[in-house]
Amino acid sequence: MIEIAVDFKNVDEALGRLAGFSRSKRPLMRAIVGIMADAVEENFAQEGRPQWLGLAPATRKHRSGGKILQDSGRLAASIVSRADGESAVVGTNIRYAAIHQFGGEITRAAHSGWVRLRTDARGNLIRQGKEGRAARLAVFAKDSHKRARTVRYTSGGSKVKIPARPFLALTQVDADNIERTVSDYLGSLLK
């Protein structure tokens, strides 16, 4: 009679590790959230992957040469990541983030109000400059300024179209890195 003894010890150990994985995927989720957070940081550094649309000439004129979506750095600094046993999440709670991520149109309704403007001794408005646009702009008055005139203003409203500049995005290389990380992690459980 021929007897064949099969040792399932290694298989049982690997199955035990896989069972442990189903209880807690936290180490894998932490690795994935790291890849995602790095991708978002790289999106800001490269001004999009693929490249975001450029700034409108009017916007470019008022900026001090910084990168797109990084005028103050507030949006990039607001990115947070979280991983638990079931998920890996990267995001922000800044209100204006969605308009930059998805694009859209901002509509400002018509409105009116009152402003205090500085005047000279003869009651003439003080201007910001002597030539060009500055010669048309008046100087706002603080409450402490004694010579001032209160003027009513009216705005007809406006619309601004913001192009989508998705900063919470993964490239194919990022997705491949995540897939490789999952595959390597599962492979290490079976060893």
Write structural notes for this entry.
The protein folds into two domains: 9-107 and 158-190, no CATH class; 110-156, no CATH class. It is built from six helices and six strands, in the order ααααββαββββα. The chain has helices at 9-23, 26-45, 57-62, 74-77, 97-102, 172-190; strands at residues 80-83, 88-91, 104-108, 111-118, 148-155, 158-162. Strands 1-2 form a two-stranded antiparallel ribbon. The mean pLDDT is 85.
State the end-to-end CA separation: 34 Å
Question: What is the radius of gyration?
Answer: 29 Å
User: What's the SSE pattern?
Assistant: HHHHEEHEEEEH
Low-confidence stretches: none
Class by helix and strand content? alpha+beta
Helical coverage, percent range:
25-40%
On the 0-100 scale, what is the average pLDDT?
85
Q: What sort of overall outline do the alpha carbons produce when their principal axes are compared?
A: rod-shaped
Strand order of the largest sheet: 1-2
How many beta-strand segments? 6
Main pleated-sheet profile:
2 strands, antiparallel
List the domain count as a whole number.
2
- Separate helix tally: 6
Strand content: 15-25%
Any chance you could write out the topology, listing elements then pairs?
Layout: H1 9-23, H2 26-45, H3 57-62, H4 74-77, E1 80-83, E2 88-91, H5 97-102, E3 104-108, E4 111-118, E5 148-155, E6 158-162, H6 172-190
Antiparallel strand pairs: 1-2, 3-6, 4-5
Helix pairs in contact: 2-6
